[in-house]
Amino acid sequence: MKTKYWFWFWKTFLGPSRLRKRFVQTFLFAGLIPLVLMGAVSFYLVRLTHQQDVSALEQNISNQVATEIKRNLDVAGSILELRAIFDNFAPIAFDQQSLILEDVFRALPPLVEASFICTTPLHCSVGVETSRWVRKGNEAQPELELRNRINDPQFAAVRGSEGRSFGEPIKTADGKFVIPFAAPVFNKNSEVIAILAAWLDLSGLVQDIVANANLGQTGYVYAVMTDGTIVAHRDPSLVGETIKNTPIRQALDLNDNAPVTQNTYESLTGVSVSGSLSTVPDTALAVVAEWPKTETQALIDTIILQILTFAFISFFLLAIISSWMALKLIEPIAQLRIGTSIIGGGNFDYQVHINTGDELEDLGKNLNRMAQNLKGLEEVNKLRLRTELLSESLRKEREVSKLKDQFITTVSHQFNTPLSVINWSLDTLRDPKSTQEQIKETTEVIYKSQRDIAAIVADLLTLSEIGFRYQKDRVKQIDIAALADKVLEEFQDALKIKKITAQVTRSGDTIAEVNEFTMRKVIENLVDNAIAYSNEGGVVTISIEGAGTNLNLNVSDHGIGIPKDEQPLIFQQFFRAKNAIAKKNVGTGLGLFITKSIVAGHGGKISFTSSENQGTMFFVTIPKKATIEQTPPVKPELKKS
């Protein structure tokens, strides 16, 4: 008993149980939905927060670098802002200008060029430099060539104002980027007596700040002009390159001091980055901070890996818990399944034992009671079955007896007529007074009666061979039109006697897979009836047509027809219509029954149309391809005229 229990335990719980799988799938599905949602929401929030943090950090770095650049420029500008100690409206003396410029170059290493420009028309030409110094190498020295800078943008920007001005960076002949600077020179009365113009080397003011700015491990900062030209970069090879068709360039065009709205774009080096832009106040410079996605995404990838690891562990634990819960839930159900299977197999003495204290225990008790009730019903059913079998046996015996009586009566009657005619004819032959003409006529009568007896015997032999439900066998491809020609040749004598015209028409493919012997019987029976029940001088037509996968065989005559009230019975065994008996006294009534049985055995159908005293047409349809199947009982089938 224990071995049997453990076998069922293994098969039910540890083996392939559909219900257990369904329980586990349900538990897993119910547990995975919140797990997946929680993971998805966590990932979304972490990614969103991380993107915001990256953008904020990029913006802070770019703002910080822009502030430092502005501070350096302000320091340089404060050094270049001069105020004379006299109150005369006159330029500073030339020798003093040279001393001032020399001190300025010494105090400001990024200074490339500096000059005083005249603004007092009574003492000099307005807009013309009065003194100019240039840094060559590490030394600053005066330049003898003085230029007219009346149209200089910086001179125009500062003249008439009281503030300094930083211009748009320009690239010098030696490839350096400098930022123009101009500031008014005031006397003691705050009157502008000159303008100090200068070029500041951006590499000295900006490059160190940009190179030392750190953004993670791979992030970087660079300075650009408003037209997108890079003036300072950690990678010196990129200085002078121009930014085109990037979100940074769009932000520069809009002068938008904000993070770039597009999350990812390609930098000049083809690296996928995110970036931020900050403009340097009061200048034509901006600072760009870019951070490659490979580094910023690394944290997200780590978080995703942690989420997936947590999800996998949770799924594994959930699967174990779900399997254990399903095992506990399915155990009583499995016992019920085993019980119903055993009881359903006929063992009504089997009892189910479930102690769960719930509806399943009640169901087990009900199953046990049902088994006891079924055990009582089994005896009743056995008795009823024996009674039904006995009744069915008696019914079949009565049917066989009735069929036998009908068969004996029909056959006896059919044999009696020709035998009686033969007997009368023999009496005539034995009469010595019979003339030669009478003897000849009597011999013909005996010969005809002999043929009638042979036809009856042939029908009986055919019925004996094919049975009441013919099933097609020994099929082969036969040309039905050629077979009809052969059958028609056998009836030439009968056609000549009644002066009947017979013809065979064909169309399409007339080859079908049939049993040649039985299909010949079909054509013979239909042609024999058509000739037998046609009037002298009539016409019999046989048409064969290949229609797709079927073959149609039609036989028509213009004879006596079939009475309408007897048409539903025409295919029954031993049945003959009244007008047929009157036309031809001898016949078994088996021909059409045999014909329908053969046609049905070939998977086909037979029907007819008929009008009394006008003729009959039979329609036979069979499939060209052989189909072996159980033949249904033969039932009469009619077509409306």
UniProtKB/TrEMBL annotation:
Gene3D superfamilies the UniProt entry points to: 1.10.287.130, 6.10.340.10, Histidine kinase-like ATPase, C-terminal domain, PAS domain
CDD domains reported in the protein's UniProt record: HAMP, HATPase, HisKA, PDC1_HK_sensor, PDC2_HK_sensor
One cellular component (GO) term of this entry: plasma membrane
Membrane disposition: Multi-pass membrane protein
The entry's keywords: ATP-binding, Cell membrane, Kinase, Membrane, Nucleotide-binding, Phosphoprotein, Transferase, Transmembrane, Transmembrane helix, Two-component regulatory system
Stretches assigned to the Histidine kinase domain: 410-626
An example Gene Ontology molecular-function term: phosphorelay sensor kinase activity
Annotated InterPro entries: dCache_1, HAMP_dom, HATPase_C_sf, HATPase_dom, His_kinase_dom, HisK_dim/P_dom, HisK_dim/P_sf, HssS/ArlS-like
Transmembrane segments annotated in the record for this chain: 27-46, 303-327
EC number: 2.7.13.3
Catalytic reaction annotation: ATP + protein L-histidine = ADP + protein N-phospho-L-histidine
Coiled-coil zones: none
Any single Pfam family the record assigns to this protein: HATPase_c
Primary localisation category: membrane
Subcellular location: Cell membrane
Signal peptide (from-to): none
Domain HAMP: 327-379
EC class name: transferase
Record-given protein name: histidine kinase
Organism: Candidatus Harrisonbacteria bacterium CG10_big_fil_rev_8_21_14_0_10_40_38
Lineage of source species: Bacteria, Candidatus Harrisoniibacteriota
